[in-house]
Design brief:
The complex is a heterodimer of chains A (186) and B (148). With 186 residues, chain A is mostly helical. Among the domains of chain A are: 48 residues, no CATH class; 62 residues, Arc Repressor Mutant, subunit A (Orthogonal Bundle), CATH 1.10.10.60. Chain A has 9 helices and 2 strands; from the N terminus they run H-E-E-H-H-H-H-H-H-H-H. A 6-stranded parallel beta sheet of chain B has the order 2-1-3-4-5-6, with helices on both faces. In chain B, 40% of the residues lie in helices and 20% in strands. With 148 residues, chain B is α/β, with parallel strands linked by helices. Chain B starts with 5 loop residues before the first strand and ends with a strand. Chain B has 5 helices and 6 strands, in the order E-H-E-H-E-H-E-H-E-H-E. The longest helix of chain B is centred in the last third of the chain and has 21 residues. The chains are: A mainly alpha (186), B alpha/beta (148). The interface between A and B is medium-sized, with 27 and 26 residues.
Amino acid sequence: MKLYLKFDINSICKKVLQEQLDSLHLNYTVLGFGEVELNNSPSKETIKKLNQSLNDYGISVVESHKSVLVQKIKDAIVEMVYSDEKLSTSKTSAYLADKIGQSYGYISNLFSDVTYTSIANYIILQKIERAKQLILTNELTITEIAWKLNYSSVAHFSNQFKGATGLTPSAFQRIIDKRKNNIRNI
Amino acid sequence: MQSEIIRVMLADDDEDDRLFFREAFEEIKIKTSVTTLNNGIELMDYLNKPNIVLPHILFLDLNMPGKTGLDCLREIKANDTFKDIAIAIYSTSSSDEDIEETFVQGANIYIKKPHDFVMLKSTLSEVITLNWQYHTNGLNRDNFLLSI
């Protein structure tokens, strides 16, 4: 029997964060996704300990102002890609500038400096990652996925998928399926 | 900005290929440290030593005497110690069967060796940048497939 699971990443992160903060006896308020206010100033040692225990969950404390801003941009992009509301691509820059509260020119330069990729490429990366997840759940057809992810046509989606991975969506699906069977047979 | 150096490893029995590979990384923007090994047997001996620092990404030539790239790939995938290493196949072959077979065996990246240095540099730069995105954004590595 196979179980398909759905995750609410926000709840998972919040729960993990609370457990770890509690275990260090910190007095805190969770402000929202990716932000915590510590009500007294803990020592550098404590922050280091917190960072180490969070690292096990793939969470890390970000330090510089630039990294904080880049993280906010990334979060906004992920939120945008995973939201089911349709957003036309021409409005992406306005959406991000508005969300971050800085001009698009500024955030796009900053993003490229820090991450070695551009905002445009990062959006494609996240969209393709979401497409991969959707392909692997086997619930939607390629056409439905293209539509869900706001592509103008299946051809456009397939081309972008091929450009990003070197593979067609169906080849990707076939390889992952074979790989799973392969592991089962060992 | 980048505090962490990406550890890159290559196993290839061709001396020229190893040289070009190292030189290409010297000119790429992302900070890397490159280690090269002369064949599959040397590679597996190295990886199986206790307490070594594992690479973030490993490039495997397919045609090597003794142990082929595919042999190494299977050994690496059968050992949980190596589960966080991204595996890039680095080959002169571009047959669809070779590509699909290595992906099914667990490779993340398949690179057809480019013939000129400029192409090599841009290909390796693209691979290392994408791998960096997976590394820094906590993306699911099981779904990381790139054929280039």
